[in-house]
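Record format v2
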Amino acid sequence: MSITDRRTDLGSPWRRLAGALRGAGDGLAGWGLVAPVVLFFAVVFLVPVGLMVRWGFYRQLDTGALSDGFTFANYIRLFSVDLYRKATWTTLEISVLTTVVSALLAYPLALVMARGPALIGRILTVVVIAPMLINVVVRAYAWRVILANGDQGIVNWLLAQIGLGPVHLLYTEWAIVIGSVHVFLSTMVLPIAAALGRIDPAVEDAARTLGASSFAVFRRVTFPLSLPGLAVGSTLVFSLTASAFVAPALLGGNFVKMLGPLVQEQILSVFDWPFGAALATLLVVLVMGVNLASVGLIERRLQRKMKGAR
Amino acid sequence: MTSLYRPTRRGLLSAGAAAIAAPTVFVRNAWSEGKTLQIGIWGGTQGEFIRKSVLPKFEKDFDCKVTAQQGSTLGQIALLRASKDAPKFTVMFVDDLGVEIAKREGLIDPLPKDRMPNLARVFPRFIYNDGYGVALAISSAGLFYNPKATKPLESYADLWDPRFAGKVSLVGTKTTPSVFTVIAAAAVATGKPYKEAQYLADAAWPKLAELKPNVLKLYDTDDAPLLVAQGEGAIGGPEYSKYVYPYKLKGASIDMCFPKEGAFAGVNCQILVKNAPNQDLGAEFMNRMLAPEVQQGLAEAAIASPSIGGLSFTSPIADLLAYPDTKMDELGLFSPDWAHVNAVRSVWVEKLNQIFTK
């Protein structure tokens, strides 16, 4: 064994130790960087959510105080009264519809933003973000003017000009979906555009070279590779729609009961904070459950595609 | 050169008196100097009047700072509940139903009569819950309608008429007048007066279900009368006159009617928070709110009747106010038994939601 070899042999454990220490240092630095965010979320999210879940097991007494100990009364009421089952279903229905419509509208926009001329892309970005700069109440009032029933609404006036209508839009589920799509479209478009921007154009070119039509390229290459963006966008749109209460109140005319307005009503009008907390817990569980399931599905599909590609 | 000022005996006496009085004038409210008062007020025209016309003068007179947060009755009660152990608010404006809740839950103290001389001006009927709350303004609640679309209704039963299909804006469950909807429906269903009908809510539910085809929406924003004036539907309510008459006075196509079953009273009160900071300053503020000039201005701003006697109003405001209190008797203004209604309100809200949710 040469000296050099011995040195190498002797040096190897030291190098491994140094590497391990460096790795640990990196890990510590990583934790150090993440810690403030973790702490922030623990304080402003986990603790309040924990308290909210706990409140759902109390009972509001006539004296304004809370009952001692645990009770399942709020959850029994939640699952036995038809109103809350209906509100849960309506919340799911409207949130899914808004997510699907947003995704359908978002893809063409995102494609132009990611692949079109830079100037058009910038203009579209501003157009998509613009609604976010206006207060949600103002936006809802504007939609009331557009969707108003009878001969008052702009949509009905336009339909009347071509001999159609009138249609009953305002104070329906569709009014909430339209208003929500307008508000949350940007949260769908931007992640999809970012995902599309990361796709190597050579991959699509290869598909075209092999004779795939434009639609086939989109369906079998572009769309699957943009799924991470769709997953992020869908999560955001679904969650924001499910917890909204301005659009359901102003555009749904309070006929369409979603969980968000019911929580608000229990807290501010009825004054039953424990039942409001139980409703809010249901909403959080529902939103998290649907999001985890859909993201899991999308990820599994993506992994399958990647495996197939290998 | 002679001086132009020639002192006289009267002048010297006046100057002396002024010199003696000066310190007491300038330090009259020295006890309140630099203090801060946190209060809860209403929104709308009443809130605007208080912010613009009452608070600046009060702050100047008492050399203090008043922070006003606006909100609805139940929202204000929620704030008091949340800060029960360490109160932040000293004075709260709530409707009469809130006085009952706040007293029952031990959130308020009795009004300090010795520090509120203006209480003597208040009509006795407007001092609530054994002196725990006093009214500041009284609105009449009834139906609002667009005169271009319909005549005033003679009875609440007319709301069920098919001619109003899809034309009724019914008040939503989030505000107090939704309670009036239930009582009026019970009165229509049973033929009993409000006083008895308020305990017969079970009769109201099937009757309200029959109203569904006529209901355009359940509103919970203050602009509902304005939308009816602009042609959305024909009629709405029940609603407080203070949210309707200001539009009427500005020329909007809107008016109010009080069907034969009677009008409901919407009584805006003030209460003193238990163990609150600066209660002495709070008492002064509550007293100021009952001063004739404030009561006059508040009534004219919101078209809501004052709670004190001795004021006079000119047309058209005088025609729209239920003032003096004898005129309220003529209108048959009805105040529900809030102890009962507050206890069952959660059930009523749930029932209304079940009936009107699609």
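Confidence is low (pLDDT under 50) at residues 1-5, 21-27 of chain B.
Residues 145 and 151 of chain B are 8 Å apart (CA to CA).
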